[in-house]
Automatic annotation (TrEMBL):
It catalyses: a hydroperoxide + [thioredoxin]-dithiol = an alcohol + [thioredoxin]-disulfide + H2O. The keyword Disulfide bond applies. Coiled coil: none annotated. The keyword Signal does not apply. Its EC number is 1.11.1.24. This is Thiol peroxidase. PROSITE patterns: THIOREDOXIN_2, TPX. It comes from Pseudoglutamicibacter cumminsii. Thiol-specific peroxidase that catalyzes the reduction of hydrogen peroxide and organic hydroperoxides to water and alcohols, respectively. Plays a role in cell protection against oxidative stress by detoxifying peroxides.
Length: 164
């Protein structure tokens, strides 16, 4: 279990992120067209999972914008965002913002948060997911795995891109 700060309170996740070197858990999320998205869909590619609580917050929205901008130049790599937002909200945001270099997905009907240990177990964010990034290599193993210590903190973009 990990601890994350939110508005001066400590929140706990249901588990821990997959460790570097470990096989990434398979997942199924839903894209903005209500189609299933799985890890297997990206076999042979590097996958950056940008996980966050909600697209309707400034930091979460900024992380999607930033990965969209930086993802354009990444070879053999796909960025998949994962949140509990409904696909309709994700589609509305991506359309309004011109987001086209990331795959926005919802975990609203999956066990992604539990399988990746990133779902909040308690507090006002219970049921949502913490902010974290997991980079999966072409062979399905975890190359990078990190949670931000505070919900209001952006991911370490440069550190993540250096791994890639």
């Amino acid at each position: 279990m990990a601890t994350i700060e939110f508005q001066g309170k400590t929140l706990n996740t249901v588990g821990d992120l997959p460790a570097v070197g470990q096989a990434a858990p398979e997942f199924t999320t839903v894209n903005t067209d209500l189609e299933d998205v799985t890890l297997k869909d990206y076999a042979g590619k590097r996958v950056v999972l940008n996980v966050f609580p909600s697209i309707d917050t400034g930091v979460c929205a900024q992380s999607v914008r930033e990965f969209n901008k930086r993802a354009a130049g990444l070879d053999n790599t796909v960025v998949v965002t994962v949140s509990m937002d409904l696909p309709f909200a994700l589609g509305r945001f991506c359309g309004a913002e011109g987001i086209d270099n990331v795959v926005a997905t919802s975990a609203f009907r999956s066990s992604f948060g539990e399988d990746y240990g990133i779902k909040f177990a308690d507090g006002p964010m219970k049921g949502l997911m913490a902010r974290g990034v997991i980079v999966i290599d072409t062979d399905g193993s975890v190359l990078y795995s990190s949670l931000t210590p505070s919900v209001g903190e952006e991911p370490a973009y440069d550190e993540i891109l250096n791994v890639l």
